Amino acid sequence: MTHALPQGFRYLPGYLSRTQQQSLIEAVQEAAKDAPFFRGKMPRTGTPLSTLGSNFGPLGWVSAKTGYRYCETHPGTDQPWPPMPPKLVDLWEDVADWPAAPQACLINWYREGAKLGLHVDADEDARDAPVVSVSLGDQALYRLGGLNRKDPTRSFKLSSGDVVVLGGASRRCFHGIDRIYPGTSTLVPKGGRINLTMRVVR
Ligand code: MD3
Ligand code: FE
Question: What confidence score (pLDDT) does residue 201 get?
Fold first, then answer.
């Protein structure tokens, strides 16, 4: 007996062709020249995250000892984030079913051993707008739970080119990345997995 997926959750495996994936990786590499990947820290404890992050768009998500926040500038360069690539905006328009454009795209880079504990995304004022996630590079074991931390969870293996739309109730569900599978893709030049998440913030 398996429980139902949350309302508004859409998993689109193999949505992007290899060529489309490559062009997104090129956009990430271009952006990283101006907005280098940085290691965020857990609020209060200052424990380093196991992922490296950067952002596209007018707002970027930053995790620091002082807390999580959306910020108009990169914490290291104090410059605005690189613009959202038009191809990502097109993807949002194709799948998000939402009247507003995304203001932030978090770029998360998972190298071998990186993971992301079970959490809810709650730093956006726009709590009803969907999040659109794009997986690039190595496969990852993704876990999706319910509205409460103790609810049962389901696991999916996300592969390069997969898109997940978290709309409706699924937007408020617990989720995380248990592990990545190193060496399962040749897409990312230095290896690992890059996840892009587009968000409406305010
Ligand atoms: C479900 N990233 O950046 S993406 C995150 O694959 C994050 O790197 C994971 O969780 C990753 O916050 C999962 C899929 C995702 C993103 C946002 C969600 C799932 C979500 C928001 C609500 C529910
Ligand atoms: Fe999340």
Answer: 97
CA 176 to each of CA 115, 118, 120, 125, 198: distance values in angstroms, whole numbers, following the listed order? 8, 4, 9, 21, 16
Question: What's the CA gap between 64 and 7, in Å, rounded?
Answer: 32
- Could you report how far apart the first and last alpha carbons of the chain are, in Å? 39
Return the percentage of the chain with pLDDT > 90, whole number: 98
CATH at residue 149: 2.60.120.590
CA of 82 to the centre of ligand 1 (A): 21
Please tell me the predicted confidence (pLDDT) of residue 1: 59
Residue 193 in contact with ligand 1 by CB distance below 6 A = no
Evaluate: CB of 195 within 6 angstroms of ligand 1.
yes
- How many A from CA of 116 to the centre of ligand 2? 8
Nearest-CA residue for ligand 1 atom 17 is 131
The CB of 55 under 6 Å from ligand 1? The reply is no
Length of the chain: 202
Query: For 39-95, what is each residue's pLDDT tens digit?
Result: 999 999 999 999 999 999 999 999 999 999 999 999 999 999 999 999 999 999 999
116, part of any domain:
yes
- The C-alpha atoms of residue 46 and residue 65 are separated, in whole angstroms, by 5
Give the residue numbers spanning the domain of 122.
Answer: 9-199
Count of domains observed in the chain? 1
Closest approach atom of ligand 1 to CA 195: 8
Neighbours of ion ligand 2 (CB under 5 A): 121
